[in-house]
Design a protein that fits this description.
Blueprint (H helix, E strand, L loop, with lengths): L1 E2 L2 H21 L6 E7 L3 H17 L2 E7 L5 H12 L6 E4 L9 H7 L11 H8 L8 H12 L8 E5 L6 H9 L8 E5 L6 H5 L4 E4 L17 E4 L3 E4 L7 E4 L4 H4 L5 E2 L6 H19 L1
Parallel strand pairs: 1-11, 2-3, 2-4, 5-6, 5-7, 7-8, 8-11
Antiparallel strand pairs: 9-10
Helix pairs in contact: 1-10, 2-10, 6-7, 6-10
The structure holds guanine (GUN).
Length: 290
Amino acid sequence: MVLLDGKKTAQDIQLEIAEKVKCLKADGKKTPHLAAILVGGDGASLTYVNAKVKACEKVGFESTLVHIDATTSEEDLLNKIDELNNDDAIDGFIVQLPLPKHIDEAKVTLAVSPRKDVDGFHPENIGKMCLNLPTFLPATPNGVLEMLKRYNIETSGKHCVVIGRSHIVGSPMSILMARNGNPGNATVTLTHSRTSNLKEICATADILIAAVGRPLFVTADMVKEGAVVVDVGIHRVEDSSKKSGFKLIGDVDFANVSEKCSHISPVPGGVGPMTIASLMMNTLSAIELK
Ligand code: GUN
């Protein structure tokens, strides 16, 4: 079994980006600048946003964290987005999700200028992704693709089963795996909570991508011998032996599934760091697209 080491792969990507940033600076070009808006923020969102800011430092980007109160009105948030849309110093920005219940996520996604939408969530960028036109690709699915590419995993003609149809992971993941490209050219089945015979379908997957959002959902009986398993899930569960009081687990029952598959991404240290590396790639391309 080969471990799909997202931590190491993300470090490699970040070193490559750091080299490119050095060249930009040496040529007197602008240093890429990423901003992140965090509204309120439970512990997990704050951790993710801080990790994104830290990654900016590592690759030599400038970064701005806009941390606003959970009680902020939708209008105030939209005004802040407009400010960033019109700020020439900022090359790209993200609004960390989820948002408080009183704010309409769809409205927020639409408000971000497609040119600065380094999350790749704007409908214009999603449309371009579907049409295989150059654009910002959503960070998590693109991180998964980059991981498959760097581990030389053949996807062409393979049966890829994606579990979960979320707008930010499952749906774009299924489109990217089916697109004409490398990685890509897979025969994709997108499964979700209403899928009949889920276990049986998963057990036919050459590549199984779990983005279901339920801890340890994928058990060994759902996995074909020799399959490639990618775990997009991340869940905090209590663990009194840890200083933080919790540990992280994924959507996949790693201990049992890893005995059956050819490749598997761990949690933590799999898709999570790749998502951040992918965001850095998008921010760099925001400069290059200018
Ligand atoms: N919340 C969980 N994943 C993401 C992501 O990729 N981008 C943003 N903005 N929020 C998230």
